[in-house]
Design brief:
Layout (H helix, E strand, L loop, with lengths): L21 E5 L6 H17 L5 H19 L3 E8 L2 E8 L13 H7 L3 H4 L4 H4 L3 H11 L2 E7 L2 E8 L4 H8 L13 E9 H20 L10 H11 L1 H16 L4 E8 L1 H22 L10 H18 L17 H14 L9 H13 L4 H11 L5 E9 L5 E8 L3 H6 L2 E3 L5 H8 L3 E3 L2 H7 L13 E8 L4 E8 L7 H20 L1
Antiparallel strand pairs: 1-2, 2-3, 3-5, 4-5, 6-7, 8-9, 8-13, 9-10, 11-12, 12-13
Length: 515
């Protein structure tokens, strides 16, 4: 059902049609680029209308309205901006009449249940779920004076109105931030692969909460007097970097994927703007931690993710190659992971399997690796050395120089279909080797069922026949990779065994440097 604004007497308020209105058609094929196109065009229109003081709010509203249209309709769209008194009316028209925006309930859980992808739902928090369409329209509701959605012909129009001009606002918004990017986006094309969808959605939800509070609530006196203007301006200036992440995350959810790969242009000035925005967010976070704001402070992982993303963008603008995102797809305390762990523990509780011992495996492997002259001999040496501990197969995966492709450089006792499927794969494929390469932390799977629960890609992809699997990082001066060792029987991996297995990874790193 369409959202309907209401007047002071409680009657539905119909939008006032602006006349004349400037319009722009955007093809569905533009995808995420539609947002940047709409924002650039809006700047020109507002200049012509003499409404430059509304630029920040108009760009924020357009980002949300166009994002919703791009993600949830997949149709061509038309945007229009026209004057309404001292303000403006924004319209986004699409060709899908039966998907109306709402401010409560996002439909994400229903989407997941409909398509039977509970594995994806297990990696999303309540905050993630609420960051979808409903959260975006909550921002529209908070920023605009009024908004609505109306069926029109074979499609619909979602509109929002702003009529908040005034000297104070004009003065605050007309002075551009020094070095702010303007015009057509240009600069280095940055690529950020292997980003967990849950982090992007949670970060977006927390920022949306903050924007809403800054827009509609009384702020504590402890805030610097200019913090609202500064934060609002940074939200606008960084949108051309943040929007591609948000659009890619929503598209990944609709594809039932937990990792995304996103690219966008960034200028050197843009990096400094991002760093400034991060500083402002951290200042405001301190107030949330002290309870001076209503919105919750972001989890420490979200702040760490934001810092990493800004640093990674800066590295690439400086000429460095892409680095995969080092955060796990699913947090260790996720209920789905905990449930899989309990089932695996029960399955191996009564099993008597040989333990992985320092004196047994490490000593033999150290000698065998000295004679290895290529990747395959490295993997063969490890599997043979671990035979007494139940090792039956193994592989070595290396991250290619492009920073986004993983290569299976050696495999021992793998079936041909497994070798063929995983000969090369993107770092964004949700696999144990990809996770270990990205995060630098080992993955230990006690049973085949736990493997499938943690990494659903193996529900319909070839995998090894061994029951338990240990995957440890391999990192040398020249190599980033993952060493996988399969065991014939289900087993637990205690602290001592994990220490030995990770020591094996370090031995392999040294061997690769020699090679």
């Amino acid at each position: 059902m369409a959202h309907e604004d209401h007047d002071e007497r409680g009657r539905p308020a119909r939008g006032r049609k602006p006349s004349p209105a400037a319009s722009l058609a955007i093809a569905a094929a533009e995808g995420a680029a539609a947002i940047a196109t709409a924002r650039r065009w809006a700047r020109e229109v507002l200049d012509e209308l003499g409404c430059g003081h509304l630029l920040d709010d108009v760009e924020l509203l357009l980002s949300e309205l166009v994002t919703n249209a791009v993600i949830h309709t997949g149709s061509d769209i038309e945007i229009a901006i026209g004057p309404t008194g001292i303000g403006v009316r924004i319209e986004v028209r699409d060709e899908v009449a039966d998907r109306m925006p709402v401010t409560s309930g996002t439909g994400l859980l229903e989407l997941l249940q409909l398509d039977d992808v509970d594995d994806l739902a297990g990696g999303l928090t309540d905050l993630d779920v609420e960051t979808m369409t409903g959260r975006g329209m909550t921002v529209v509701e908070a920023v605009s004076d009024r908004w609505g959605a109306e069926v029109s012909g074979d499609g619909k129009v979602v509109w929002a109105e702003l009529a908040t001009g005034g000297e104070g606002q004009t003065e605050a918004a007309e002075a551009p931030t020094a070095g702010a990017p303007t015009g057509t986006p240009s600069g280095t094309v940055v690529r950020v692969p292997g980003v967990p969808v849950r982090l992007v959605l949670t970060a977006a939800a927390q920022l949306d909460d903050l924007v809403r509070e800054l827009a509609v609530t009384s702020l504590p006196s402890s805030l610097p007097p200019d913090i609202v203007d500064v934060a609002s301006r940074f939200v606008t200036l960084t949108a051309e970097v943040r929007d591609p992440f948000r659009v890619a995350a929503r598209a990944a959810v609709e594809r039932h994927e937990r990792l995304l790969d996103v690219s966008f242009p960034v200028s050197p000035v843009g990096v400094e703007v991002l760093r400034g925005f991060l500083d402002v967010l951290e200042r405001i976070t301190e107030l949330s931690v002290r309870g001076e704001l209503l919105c919750l402070a972001p989890p420490s992982e979200i702040m760490a993710f934001r810092r990493w993303a800004v640093d990674e963008i800066g590295r690439q603008v400086g000429g460095a190659p892409p680095t995969p995102c080092p955060f796990p797809v699913v947090p260790a305390d996720d209920p789905a992971v905990a449930a899989a762990a309990r089932l695996a523990s029960a399955a191996v509780a009564a099993a008597a399997v040989p333990g992985v011992t320092d004196g047994g495996w490490l000593a033999v492997a150290r000698v065998a690796l000295r004679a290895a002259t290529d990747h395959r001999q490295v993997a063969e040496a490890l599997v043979a050395a671990g035979d007494d501990m139940g090792a039956v197969d193994g592989s070595l995966c290396i991250l290619a120089p492009d920073g986004v492709t993983v290569e299976l450089v050696a495999a021992v006792n793998y079936e041909d279909d497994v070798r063929g499927r995983w000969a090369t794969f993107p770092i964004t494929d949700d696999t144990p080797a990809g996770e270990v390469i990205r995060t630098g932390r080992g993955v230990y799977l006690r049973t085949g069922d736990e493997l499938v629960a943690r990494f659903p890609v193996f529900l319909d992809s070839p995998r090894i026949d061994s029951e338990a699997l240990a995957v440890v990082p391999v990192r040398s001066d020249t190599t980033r990779g993952a060493l996988a060792i399969g065991f014939r029987e289900s087993r637990t991996f205690g602290p001592d065994e994990i220490e030995v297995l990770e020591a094996l990874g370090r031995l392999v790193s040294e061997a690769l440097d020699r090679l």
